[in-house]
Amino acid sequence: MLSFPWVEGKENISGALVKMEQIKPGVGGTIVYLASDDCSVEISRVEKAGGKIIQPRMALGEHGFSALFIDSEGNTVGLHSMN
């Protein structure tokens, strides 16, 4: 299990990544987007970590940038940044 930090009274959201035997990863479900300072940094690490890039960093105009990848367990994950 990996949990994300949360600070009382600040603009943030918390959550956790949990591996469960009865829940199987797969394509076609919800895509969770993780925020970053520059999503090109994280997307550059995906293939070395056993994942597959399915959408390289893409401009979203005034909404910043995003990228999509499949992690080493088969989950589709999104990245978002303003840089």
Low-confidence stretches: none
Q: Count helical runs.
A: 1
Structural Rg = 14 Å
Could you give the order of strands across the largest sheet?
Answer: 3-6-5-4
Largest sheet: 4 strands, mixed
Gross morphology is globular
Instruction: Give the integer mean of the pLDDT values.
Output: 86
Content of β-strand: 25-35%
Total beta strand runs: 6
Helix vs. strand class: mainly beta
For the record, give the distance between the C-alpha atoms at the N and C termini, rounded to a whole number: 29 Å
Give the SSE order as H and E letters: EEEHEEE
Instruction: Give the % helix.
Output: under 10%
Structure notes:
The N and C termini lie far apart (29 Å). The protein is built from one helix and six strands, in the order βββαβββ. Helices cover 6% and strands 34% of the residues. By secondary structure, it is mainly beta. A four-stranded mixed sheet has the order 3-6-5-4. A two-stranded antiparallel ribbon has the order 1-2. The longest helix is centred in the middle third of the chain and has 5 residues, at 39-43.
